[in-house]
Each structure stands twice: as structure tokens, then as C-alpha cells.
Amino acid sequence: MMEIELLVIPGCPNTAATAELIATAVADTGIRATVQHTVVTTRDQARRRRFVGSPTILLNGSDPFAQPRASPALACRLYSTAYGPRGVPQLQALRQAIMRAATA
After folding, report:
1. Which has the closest alpha carbon to 87: 4, 23, 19?
2. The domain that contains 6 carries what CATH number?
3. How many domains does the chain fold into?
4. DSSP letters of 50-70?
């Protein structure tokens, strides 16, 4: 069973959209998964969790959208999409990441 964790900062405007995106991607792929929501509130927490912005999606503990030079931050996160930077990843990209993580 896959473990998915959604990490956010308090008041993140993309929390609900990302939670919905995760639910859709999991349903679409048919992968069995548990989804946990975690609120990151301190810089120390961000540093320890390698949290680079809200929302962050972890699949079995790994960030499939990690940027090598990103620094831990209590801030909003932007994802590269075919439509330019957005506050959530594209559904197709998340589906592919879930499928890769499920077979890893």
C-alpha cells in the first residue's frame, strides 16, 4: 500500500485543490493508498522534513516533484506545468508519479 502525505502551511490556498487532485489520481490509477495531511508550522519542521513549500506531496516519503536546489521554506510552492507555473501539479504528472512510485 502506498503512503501519500500532503504537507501544507496553515492557510495554504491550494490545500483543497491538491487533496482533490490526490484523490482523483489515486482513483484513476487504482493504486491502494493511505493519505495523510500534515501542517508544517515552523522553520525547524520545514528543514527537518525538507519541505520546500506548500503544498508538497510525498509518495512513500519521496517528493516526486523535487527541485535539486530548492531550500526549505514556509511559503507557497509553484509547480512547472504545460500551462506555466501553478500552485498544484498537473493531474497527469501526479498519476505518472504514483505509478512510478508504486513499481519502485
Report:
1. 19
2. 3.40.30.10
3. 1
4. T--SBSEEEETTB-TT--TTP
Is residue 62 classed as helix, strand or coil in its secondary structure?
Answer: strand
- Domain holding 85, by residue range, is 2-103
Task: Give Cα separations from 15 to 80, 85, 102 (angstroms).
Answer: 17, 16, 23
Over residues 9-46, the pLDDT tens digits come to 999 999 999 999 999 999 999 999 999 999 999 999 99
pLDDT at position 104: 84
Per-residue DSSP letter, 39: E
How distant is the alpha carbon of residue 71 from its chain centre? 16
